[in-house]
Amino acid sequence: RKGRATFDLIAKNTTGYRQFWIINIEYLDAGGTATVDNVRTLIQPGDFVIEKDKTDAQFYQGQQGTLPIKLSKNIPEAQLNNITVSAKLMVSSTGDYVVEKDGLSATSDANGKLSFTFTPSQDKSYRLDMETKDKKGNLIKAEEPIYLSRLQDANAIPYDIFDVKTDKETYNVGDVAKVTISTRPEVKNLFVSVGRNYSRGYRVLPVTN
C-alpha cells in the first residue's frame, strides 16, 4: 500500500538571482528505520529573468559596442514591457571586479527587449551587472561577462582572417590530428572549440610565429 504526503512550502528568494534549493525529506518505515531523500528545485527571484538576447555581440577596447538584452518570462502572466533595468560596467584584471561606469539604464520594449551601449576602455576582463524589479516589486539581477576582441579595427574584419590546414584529408578513430591555423599579425589569441554537433571543450591559444 502506498502512502502520500503533501507539503506546502513558501520559498522567498531575495538575492535577485536564480537559486537551486535542496529540500531534505526524512521519513520512517514501519520498523522505525529512517530514510532521508532530497529534492532539488529551482527558485526564481521574480516573474522574469534578465538574459543576453544574442550571442554575436562584439566588443573592442576603446570602441563603442552594444549588448542586446531580453526579459524572459517565468510565469505566463509576467509583464515584460516598460521595465527599466539599471546596470554597472565592471572591470577586472585580478579576479576582483570594480566599477568602471555606473548609472547605465535601459527600458524594455513591448517584447521585453532592451540594450546597453558602452565603451570598454581597458584591455581587461569586463562584466555587466544588471538589476531591476518586476511589477510585484521582486528584485531581479543578472551578470553578463563581456569578451573583448583584440583586433584594432572592428570595422575591417576580413572574412578570410583565418586559414586552417590539417596534416591529412581524412582520419580514423584514434588518430592524432595536427591542425595549423594561420591568421593576421594583429591577432594575439585564438579561441578554439572542439566537438561534433556541440562543443566538447575549448582553449584560448596564443598566436606564435
Mean pLDDT: 83
Distance between the termini: 73 Å
SS class:
mainly beta
Strand percentage:
over 45%
What ranges have pLDDT less than 50 throughout 5 or more consecutive residues?
Answer: 152-157
> If you compute it from the alpha carbons, what radius of gyration comes out, rounded to the nearest whole angstrom?
24 Å
State the share of residues found in helices, binned by percent: under 10%
Number of helices: 0
- Write out the strand line-up for the largest beta sheet, numbering strands in chain order: 7-6-9-10
Dominant shape: flat
The number of E-state strands comes to: 15
The largest pleated sheet is described as: 4 strands, antiparallel
Order of helices and strands: EEEEEEEEEEEEEEE
How would you describe this structure to a colleague?
0% of the residues lie in helices and 50% in strands. A hairpin with a 5-residue loop joins strand 9 (125-133) and strand 10. By secondary structure, the chain is an all-beta fold. The protein has no helices and 15 strands. The strands form 6 sheets. The protein has a 4-stranded antiparallel beta sheet, with no helix packed on it. The chain has a 3-stranded antiparallel beta sheet with strand order 3-5-8, with no helix packed on it. Residues 152-157 have low confidence and may be disordered.
Can you lay out the helices and strands and say which pair or pack?
Blueprint (H helix, E strand, L loop, with lengths): L18 E10 L5 E10 L4 E5 L6 E2 L4 E9 L10 E9 L5 E10 L5 E6 L6 E9 L5 E8 L1 E2 L13 E4 L12 E4 L6 E8 L1 E9 L3
Parallel strand pairs: 4-11
Antiparallel strand pairs: 1-2, 3-5, 5-8, 6-7, 6-9, 9-10, 12-13, 14-15
